[in-house]
Amino acid sequence: MSSSFEDSLAAYAGRVTDRLDAVLPPADTEPTRLHEAMRYAVLNGGKRLRPLLVYTTGECLRIDPGLLDAPATAVELIHAFSLVHDDLPAMDDDDLRRGRPTVHKRFDEATAILAADALQPLAFSVLASFDGAASEVRVRLLRLLANACGSIGMTGGQALDLGAEGSRLGAEQLEHMFALKTGALIRASVLSASLLADGLETPKAEALDGFARAIGVAFQIRDDLLDVEGETRIIGKPAGSDERNHKATYPSLFGVDASRARCKELLAKGLGHLDVFSDDAEPLRQLAMFVIDRQA
User: Fold this and answer.
1) CATH number (domain holding residue 240)
2) What domain count does the chain have?
3) First-residue to last-residue Cα distance in the chain
4) Domain range for 63
5) Distance between CA 283 and CA 218 in Å, rounded?
6) Cα angle vertex 24, ends 117, 157, to 5°?
7) pTM
8) Segment 146-180, tens digit of pLDDT
């Protein structure tokens, strides 16, 4: 990445972190332990990749960043909610997230569940209170995010993931699970920006959808590879946890080389969808390449 692009991503990450800090209840407001846990879950670092997708898609469509703050904030709240639940003993049972104790380890299991449960409605409240778009656009944003995190999206994907432990899935089944578990929220990040673009032509809307679908699956394959090849101190969570939990992953089912090849194939497919935007999509292209080449 160029230094100017890195600076741009850092500015966007700081921007959404400021918004998250503003919408989260203060830690000294009752119930203080719950609010402290919510803030710990959200403001504990992270790359803010999903908000970055919102903002860089906005650049592609020449949308004022001020109009993107609400969906960027909402999608990160949903992501934080999902991570807290994923780390619970009943799910992946992880002790470390972003190099720090997971929420249920830092507080307790009950508080972690409640904190995640509170983050989800807060995300919808942010969108419902968004006054930068017409009411029908707000409804579409709300529906998009609801579908992305519900049983036909992220939650359904997690259910499939749990059910697939110890199983041998085919590539199509595995990628369908990835498209729900990880891809749905990535797709919502991209499409939330497109919903705010006035008069967006259908071919361009479809191109962004195709890009998001390809990158969403590639992101999860890269995540699977990092679990195999990464180091705990770098990736911020226990390396090798997928194997210990008998997870159905791309490397475990098809091998590391096939996983790398599929990642590259999906990246190329996703980038191809952006050709219709010419140079306007360059920030989005660079972010996609960063997502697939990332080391953590």
Assistant:
1) 1.10.600.10
2) 1
3) 16
4) 3-293
5) 18
6) 35
7) 0.94
8) 999 999 999 999 999 988 887 788 999 999 999 99
